[in-house]
Amino acid sequence: MRRFGCVVASFSALRLFLAQRHFLEIETPVLSRASQGSGANPRITPCDVSRHQHQIMIGQYLKSLRMSGISRTFEIKRSFRTEDAPPPDNEFIILEACQTYIDYLDTMDLVRQLVQQASCAIYDKKAVTRQSGKGDWEASEEWQVLTVHTAVAAALQCPITVDTSYSELLSACKRVGIEAPPMASRDQLVMCAFKRLVEPATQYPTFYIDYPVSSSPTTRQHRLHSRLAERWGLVAFGVEIATSSSEVTDPIEYQGRLPRQQSYAASKSNSDATEVNDEFLLFLQYGIPPRASFQLSIHHLLDVLTSFPAKDT
């Protein structure tokens, strides 16, 4: 009963927080004719006349609503993937929100307050009793912000920047026992080290910002460095809770990114994720204002805030 109460309290708190900030909750289709994810494998559902895919990410429908002048929207919905785990572990409850005229740096404070609101709803305070190597976690404390390359450099114990050569990075990875995937690019090596060394070792909530641009094919290019993307991931206790990005709104630039997205999907052996959503491209051509979005995994959030797996509910 305690588990169920935590889930209900957190859902109510998340909805209330966003409603108080004038976000409009919407509902979008579960099935789509084109893949909605950047690299994950979609779950296929055959229909009488065509093949449909369960949504992986729900963001493109939210982004398309910018056309109607709605500036703040969110949705809480199940997301379906086929890789890594059998059902029901490949189903997730995702909260995705989108707002115009902000960027990925603005969403950091929004998500931090959102997590604190959920913590207050469960514990009636911002302190989370979660044992770690450094003691309990206080959700109201300041959260660390690090660039991906800074975190990888600390994990590899050698200087790593966007200008580090492939051979130097490969050598550093091998020294700590990380085997490079076949035909891995420099950016893929960085992300491999990040996933293997940085995420599992992260205890208290940390925003990792400025990902390699090739790992974020539909994210806006960094304003100061062309080889980085304006994206962050929030990690706590070895789990990625949320991600956010400033988004590409230029239709010409977006179409130019499609080969990169297809290459990224192909590197994950996912041919379905390379399909182009023509409707979304049409919306971009009509014109959409600058915006940023974030995705919050409610399952992972509850795993962090409580001492039991949320999926047990």
Automatic annotation (TrEMBL):
<dbReference type="Pfam" id="PF00152">
    <property type="entry name" value="tRNA-synt_2"/>
</dbReference>
<dbReference type="GO" id="GO:0000049">
    <property type="term" value="F:tRNA binding"/>
</dbReference>
<dbReference type="InterPro" id="IPR018149">
    <property type="entry name" value="Lys-tRNA-synth_II_C"/>
</dbReference>
<protein>
    <recommendedName>
        <fullName>Aminoacyl-tRNA synthetase class II (D/K/N) domain-containing protein</fullName>
    </recommendedName>
</protein>
<dbReference type="GO" id="GO:0005524">
    <property type="term" value="F:ATP binding"/>
</dbReference>
<keyword id="KW-0067">ATP-binding</keyword>
<keyword id="KW-0732">Signal</keyword>
<dbReference type="GO" id="GO:0004824">
    <property type="term" value="F:lysine-tRNA ligase activity"/>
</dbReference>
<dbReference type="InterPro" id="IPR004364">
    <property type="entry name" value="Aa-tRNA-synt_II"/>
</dbReference>
<dbReference type="InterPro" id="IPR045864">
    <property type="entry name" value="aa-tRNA-synth_II/BPL/LPL"/>
</dbReference>
<keyword id="KW-0436">Ligase</keyword>
<feature type="domain" description="Aminoacyl-tRNA synthetase class II (D/K/N)">
    <location>
        <begin position="12"/>
        <end position="306"/>
    </location>
</feature>
<feature type="signal peptide">
    <location>
        <begin position="1"/>
        <end position="19"/>
    </location>
</feature>
<dbReference type="GO" id="GO:0005829">
    <property type="term" value="C:cytosol"/>
</dbReference>
<dbReference type="GO" id="GO:0006430">
    <property type="term" value="P:lysyl-tRNA aminoacylation"/>
</dbReference>
<keyword id="KW-0547">Nucleotide-binding</keyword>
